[in-house]
Design goal:
This protein is an all-alpha fold. It has a domain at 20-50. The protein contains two helices and no strands. The radius of gyration is 30 Å and the shape is elongated.
Length: 74
């Protein structure tokens, strides 16, 4: 009969619990960063796929239309 080796669990080292205040702030920070990233993606998609600024406000759109004064100067 062969004897098998038995794995012995190492002793558990007691550790102090992490701060709940730190966990709350970490959650808030990660949530704010994710919210800002989602908002940035939504704004980018809106500006990229909509041409609502056709000639009314050329400073906002991705490819603004040329102003009539610039076209008349040529």
């Amino acid at each position: 009969m062969r004897t098998r080796e038995h794995w012995v669990r190492p002793p558990v080292v007691a550790a102090e619990a992490r701060s709940q205040r730190l966990a709350a702030w970490r959650y808030r920070l990660i949530s704010a960063v994710l919210l800002a990233a989602v908002a940035a993606v939504v704004v980018w998609l809106f500006l990229h796929f909509s041409n609502v600024t056709g000639g009314e406000d050329p400073g906002i759109g991705i490819s603004p239309a040329r102003s009539p004064l610039a076209a008349a100067a040529r």
